[in-house]
Amino acid sequence: MNQHHESTGPVGEQQITLRGPAELADALPYLMGFHPNDSVVMVALHGGRGRFGGRLRLGIPQAPQEWASVAKQLAECLIKGSERRGERPDAIVIFLCQDPAQGESRSQTMERLRPLAQHLRTACGALEVPVLEALCISGGRYWSYCCPDSRCCPAEGNQMAMPGTSVMAAAAAYAGIQVRGTLREMEARLEPLNTEMAADQQRALDSAGAELVPKILDEAGRKDVARETLGLARRLMKRLREAPMAAPSASDINDDRLISHDEAAAVILGLQDRETRDKAAQWMEGPEADSALRLWRALSRRCVAPYEEHAAAPLTLAGWVSWSTGDEPGARVALGLALRVDPGYTFAQLLHEACNQGLDPETLRRCLRGERNARTGRRPRPDRTRPRTVRPTATRRRKTTSGSNRPEAAVARRRSGQVSPSRRGSRSGR
User: Is the dihedral of CA 336, 337, 341, 345 positive or negative?
Assistant: First the structure.
């Protein structure tokens, strides 16, 4: 077994030392905030003791012929993204998480994924960053692709630790950190409804589209639609906020009942306009954030077939509010789904990369506050209670130039450390 030490800090100031594959495998859900299913997870390590840094997750591509190119892209994204923050990784840890397919044993799953692990190791090595450990986690067992010793890493794998019995679990419990379940469970809260309501919602979207799309394509009509969309969204947020509290298991069901099909359709289509979406993104902190997040989740669930691509806007807004309020796991899941339904959605791309790099969302919050104050004529208030962030960056804030005060530009500036002009493009919501 490879003996090495990794220090991680998801439990505040406390440091935990992880020794070997067993403790690494057990730590993964605490690093991500959920149990990743069908996922490639890569984590950067820094310094002699292997401090955990940036991390990224991607669904395992189904086609093995895609593995080499995907591995190269993932290695470049993690390593070069870390370099932009002045923290080139000293090593990388890789996790391949997938339960056996029907008729497949756990060991067969591990062997099937071995070429992917090798592609990832080769891609990282080509960028002169070694892979310290590569683990496969499948069906409650784990294997090391880096350890050839069958005495400690047998062909049948090693049993995962019982939940809650490891040093990482104890430290997380002490710090009040919880694992929210599986990735599938978190995604289910954002995926399109699959009930009898879906047909009614589709008809409402068809009807709203026939009415609103011609208006959106007209300059004067677009402004009217934007005003009506934001006004309706505010009313829905107020309705959600004033509703009686429900148990977590019933909260999404209750939220769905509080929003009619026609109301959902009107806001979903209105958010396809980029400027309208950007104004909605200003509900990102304080008492508005919780009700806005509930609304964006509910609207994501209403983007039923054949309107799945329309979910990119509410999913991105859900990811943004989650990130802004310190919920990085929730942000990664929502933004990942946004890119799944529309891989070219620029705002989701930039937010997803910035969140994965552990950047500070305050730059974008400041940009959106400025837009809101300019529109309403309010003076900026002193920032006495800065919202909590997970991993603040040391990058210095730079002055913005005229015309760059858009959400995409703010994220791009923080990502690159440079001032970039606004990316206006079309008004398709990108």
Answer: negative
This prediction has a pTM of 0.70
Q: Which amino acid makes up residue 112?
A: R
Paired residues of 91 in beta bridges: 45
Torsion of CA 63, 64, 68, 73, to 10 degrees: 30
Q: How many Cα atoms sit within 13 Å of 163 on the Cβ side?
A: 8
The answer to whether 59 and 113 have CB atoms below 8 angstroms apart is no
Coil, helix or strand for 96? strand
In contact, 90 and 47? CB cutoff 8 Å: yes
Query: In the structure encoding, which two tokens stand for residue 99, read together?
Result: 């339960």
CA distance 109 to 100: 6
Q: 357 near 323, Cβ under 8 Å?
A: no
Rounded Cα distance, 348 and 274, in Å: 12
For residue 18, the surrounding DSSP H or E stretch is strand 16-19
Please compute, for residue 41, the number of CA atoms within 13 A of its CA located in the half-sphere on the CB side: 30
Mean pLDDT by 10 residues, the chain (430 residues): 42 59 84 88 88 88 94 93 86 95 94 97 96 94 90 87 63 64 88 91 96 89 94 97 81 94 97 95 93 97 96 98 91 93 94 84 89 73 44 35 51 44 39
Long-range pairs, 198-203, Cβ under 8 A, ≥24:
198/304, 198/305, 200/261, 201/261, 201/264, 201/265, 201/302, 201/304, 202/304, 202/305, 202/306, 202/307, 203/261
d(CA 257, CA 255): 5
Residue 137: DSSP 8-state: E
Nearest to 39 by CA among 183, 246, 230: 183
Which residues is 159 bridged to in the sheet?
141
AA identity, residue 88: R
Contacts of 304 (CB under 8 A, 6+ apart): 192, 193, 198, 201, 202, 205
Cβ-contact 415, 357 below 8 angstroms: yes
Q: Are 51 and 9 in contact (CB under 8 A)?
A: yes
